[in-house]
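Weekly structure sync, notes
Attendees: PL (lead), two postdocs, one rotation student
Agenda item 3: pending single-chain targets
PL asked that the sequence for the first pending target be pasted directly into the notes so everyone works from the same version. It is reproduced below exactly as submitted, 381 residues in total.
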Amino acid sequence: QVAVDIGTTTLAMLLLDGKGNILSSWTGLNSQRKYGADVISRIERANKGEKQILTDCIRADILGGLKSLCDGKKISRVVVAGNTTMQHLFAGYPVDGLGRYPFSVAQKNLVVGRLEEFYSELPDLLRDAEYVSMPCISAFVGGDIMAGILEVERQIVDRKREGRNWLLLDLGTNGEMVLYSEGVYYTASAAAGPVLEGGNISCGMGSVAGAIDHVWERNGEVEYSTIGGEIPIGICGTGLIESIAVLRRMGILEQSGLLAGYAESGYLLARGFHGDMIRITQEDIRQFQLAKAAIRSGIEILCQTAGVDVQGLERIYLAGGFGTKLDVKKSCEVGLLPLVSRNRYRVIGNASLGGCRVYCMEENVGEELERVQESAKKVTL
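Predicted structure, written out during the meeting:
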């Protein structure tokens, strides 16, 4: 069996045995990114006559990942989750309703079919595979969040405590979130943009080797680490957040977001192999402020709607590759995350893949998905 997370920027897969145990994994980039960094851009391109191109892109990407993963093993099932736009484009559903009011969704329900429906030709090891697509809640709260709910529910240990209320945050190009309280799932999506994944940043990049991912201050000097310990070539989302937190502590970044003394030139964070200057610019700060405002507004509105104080949340689950590497303390300092006790936060990795794995492991999971979907769609913001 294979679990597939179709991210706007990144694709991730797990090869599972018949009991849901992980055998191997695969990650790759979504080649649709050349048609736009976010889902709105891709919806617009699809509505201008390029939908089949976008569909062909993602299908080819996923097939390539499946071929790499199967490694001589016959695949019986492929379970797919992603945001609503990604799932629709893969399946070939129309997306014109996703980008305009009243934001109608062509297919919301759990879909069970055959993988061969989407390919004219498949290798023998994939030809008989069942295809499962997670149900979506709304135009901007997709199957990845439904899968994430399954993963959170699986991880809850003390239901008398953690099960009373919790918040799930999947922070990326689309900031999707779920607040569970008193048996009801409140959901929302915030347009964070690509900043948290290194986009729209002067020296920004994805989480690849050489990207500055952690930043700290020592004896009045800014220090950093890079992914893989390589010579720095840019800065990823976590590095940006930590840079902002450190510059704020040092008094270089004012409360308003002004880079005091560096508004014109930017703050030199590091030099690359060829002397390339990796800077944090004033515009980078503004881009982050926009993303932060979107995320925090979504959290605050969810809490107000549910009648729950942020300080009363028993658990805050951080999902996605970005959430896995996030420094919670520094993220709270810059206002991206609510300032609550550190022990209330739980990092759960790729919850979308985790939920797909739950589907492969447990019986009657379809009934659970239907129950969550019915509850959540009543209070989706």
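Discussion points:
- The chain has a mean pLDDT of 91.
- The two ends are 34 Å apart (CA to CA).
Action: rotation student to compare against the earlier draft before next sync.
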